[in-house]
Specification:
Blueprint (H helix, E strand, L loop, with lengths): L4 H9 L9 H14 L7 H14 L3 H14 L4 H15 L1 H21 L20 H16 L9 H11 L11 H15 L2 H14 L4 H15 L1 H25 L1
């Protein structure tokens, strides 16, 4: 028996809503929750990461608050995971949007504590050791190794501030190596972020490496595209869909050449 869409909505969003019967709300309930969120192929946690990246990337305060609250209230994502989500999101979608996401997390975390009657406790101050190696060469070497591991291609040269200080030192020398989100988790954040950016080379790079590494299967990637399309639009989703087709053809060609 199919679960009613209203029950799926309540299970996903952790709050009731008064549906007014408008075409938009009817489609949201029937399609987004009745169909997309109820599909197999991705865990609810993985769908949350994709949806959060989309609503935060859209800079939509209401949906950001709703999804941040639901992620916390459901227990699908814990506070330390959401803090890491925001940092990773900042790298791929920009610091101003991440600032709004961080504010949302703080407000929704306080709201949930108040609803549960829990005493408010200030967030901890992170130790300097959490910033990783201070030896520049060690950090760059680690960044080069991580870049190759994530992207399945050799690291870029250290011949520009963008590559040396940004990509090798910070993005792959630190962020991708931080705890509380796995490499696979970070794929589910990065792919929607580059998808909404419209930057075609990073879209190819991250979809291709996610498929080529086996971190995300073809069927899982198809579900990512659908989840992304529901939250950021089918025009952008069509671009992701075509890139998946193209990159999977390359993966199959490479696999055939090694057999």
């Amino acid at each position: 028996m199919r679960i009613p869409a209203s029950e799926i909505y309540l299970d996903v969003m952790m709050t009731e809503s008064d549906w007014d019967g408008s075409p938009f709300e009817t489609a949201t309930l029937d399609f987004v929750f009745g169909h997309v969120w109820s599909r197999p192929g991705l865990t609810r946690r993985q769908r949350r990461l994709v949806a959060l990246a989309c609503v935060c990337g859209a800079a939509a305060p209401g949906p950001t608050d709703e999804h941040m609250y639901a992620a916390l209230a459901s227990g699908d994502l814990h506070i330390d995971e959401l803090l890491e989500f925001i940092l990773h999101f900042a790298v791929y979608s920009g610091w101003p949007k991440a600032s709004q996401a961080e504010t949302s997390l703080r407000v929704q975390h306080a709201r949930l504590q108040a609803e549960r009657g829990e005493a408010f406790e200030p967030w901890p101050t992170f130790a300097n050791e959490s910033l990783g190696p201070t030896d520049h060469e060690m950090r760059l070497l680690g960044g080069e190794e991580c870049f190759a591991d994530v992207n399945l291609v050799p690291p870029p040269p250290r011949n520009s501030p963008y590559f040396q200080a940004g990509i090798l030192n910070y993005v792959f020398g630190h962020v991708w190596q931080r705890p509380n989100l796995s490499r696979v988790d970070r794929r589910y954040v990065t792919i929607p972020c580059v998808g909404l950016s419209g930057a075609i080379l990073p879209i190819h790079s991250h979809i291709g490496s996610a498929l080529g590494s086996g971190d995300v299967s073809l069927d899982e990637m198809k579900e990512v595209v659908l989840q992304f399309s529901a939250y950021y639009g089918f025009a952008k989703g069509e671009v992701l869909h075509q890139v998946v087709v193209d990159e999977w053809a390359l993966v199959e060609k490479e696999q055939a050449g090694t057999n």
